[in-house]
Amino acid sequence: MTARLELKPKPWSLRRRLLAAIVAASTVLWLASLGIVTMIAWHETNEVFDDALEESGQMLMAATTDWQQRGLLARAQGSDGPERKVDMQYQIVVGGKVVQRSSGAPAQPFVTGFDDRHGFADPHVEQRRWRVFVIRDEERHFEVQVGQQYKKRYDILEELAEHLWLPIAGFLALLALVCWLLTGRVLKPLRATAASIAGKSPSDLAQVALAGQPRELLPIVQALNGVLARLDTALQSERRFTADAAHELRTPLAGLHMHVQLLQRQHPDLAAPFQKLRRDIARVTALVDSLLTLARLDPLAPGQVGRQPVMLAPVLDQLLASHAQEVAARGMTLAVRCELDSVAADPAMLEIVLRNLLDNALRYCPDGSRIELVAERHAGRLRISVRDNGPGVDPASRHRLSERFFRVLGQQQSGSGLGLSIVRRIADLHGIALAFGSGLDGRGLGVTLDFPGGSAP
């Protein structure tokens, strides 16, 4: 059976959609306004050219009042020379025949049978449409007809459009750029709010500030603040329950340990079962102590941890002395090398970290193993590392070592799975880079702590 792959929808951009909507609406409105402007321009252009035709006809009529005495006005001009944009042509018509015309005018009259004394007509002559002004002299029985092809008027509009499309396209591009910049500025509070929300963590569930939020975003921020408040309440309740339960369990566990120890003395024949019971009680006690430690660390924020110079040599010597008996009994080697004077940290938390790392190495390394605890300067940073040559952890599981209650499969040693979680939490509070890698001789496990800053305090 073939598994069907579910394609996740790609996230869409509100800014791009807003820009597309603005540009599309602007383009549609521009086209509509262009149509209106074109109609108005065509109307006004026709009126101007009609006025020019009428004035030319009146002037020609005035110039031909004595044409019978003096003859023709002028000879027909040739068509050579640059093409004229306006290109008005005239005819003088007597008895339905053209007696004089310009070089571009047709041989037959533009208009025949014109009834009015003067006016406009739109005839088709030689498969061309003309706009013609006709003026008649009733006394001398002749007409002056001045015409212009409509194509000339269309050509002027086309030329105007050719000159306008590039600036208009540039203005549309400029409009898109301006809209892109303006929408980016308008959406800046949205990005700021997103950054504020992204910074939230279980240790920082403070309300998102409502001041300065746009009206459209306020319902979302208020709803999110409600979720954060409920989540904070739930986490606080969980932490209080964990801390209270761990605290309440310590006393009965201590009492139970004493009773078992007493029963072991009273019944020497049951020493082995009682010893196993004591180990189980010790394991539960250690688990309760770890839970109590985590419950105290979880509510803290990095700024709430007090840091001070901690002299490393006494701390490492104390760790070496406290584990010397176990190391000797198991035939192990614990080497401590301190090349740093001090690091900035909370003294109690630093001791917890180093003790947990060392206990973890001793617990999972077989007898006869080597363990090194080194404090040195590495790549310009202050580093404390704990390495061993034990069985180690496979690379696929190393990134999960600091998860709570995580234990590598196949381990026979007892443990709660919280030791490295405590180390991770303290490292995060101090801004320490915690990393897991290989140990000594290319095997085992190595844990490094890189402290912030490049110099010892």
Structure description:
With 457 residues, the chain is of the alpha+beta class. Helices cover 50% and strands 17% of the residues. It is built from 10 helices and 13 strands. It has helices at residues 14-63, 67-70, 150-186, 188-198, 218-266, 271-297, 312-329, 347-364, 395-398, 419-430, and strands at 89-94, 97-101, 118-121, 124-125, 128-137, 142-149, 308-311, 333-338, 342-345, 370-378, 381-388, 433-438, 445-451. Strands 1, 2, 3, 4, 5 and 6 form a 6-stranded antiparallel sheet that branches. Helix 7 packs parallel to helix 8 and helix 8 runs antiparallel to helix 10 (419-430). It is rod-shaped, with a radius of gyration of 49 Å.
Mean pLDDT: 80
Q: Could you name the CATH class of the largest domain?
A: Alpha Beta
Main sheet record:
6 strands, antiparallel
Q: Determine the fraction of residues in helical runs and give it as a percent range.
A: 40-55%
- Rg is 49 Å
Overall tally of domains: 3
The dominant shape is rod-shaped
User: Which structural class do the helices and strands define?
Assistant: alpha+beta
CATH topology of the largest domain: Beta-Lactamase
Q: Number of DSSP helices?
A: 10
Which stretches are low in confidence, meaning pLDDT under 50 for 5 or more residues running? Answer: 74-81
The secondary-structure element order is HHEEEEEEHHHHEHEEHEEHHEE
Distance between the termini: 64 Å
What fraction of residues sit in β-strands? 15-25%
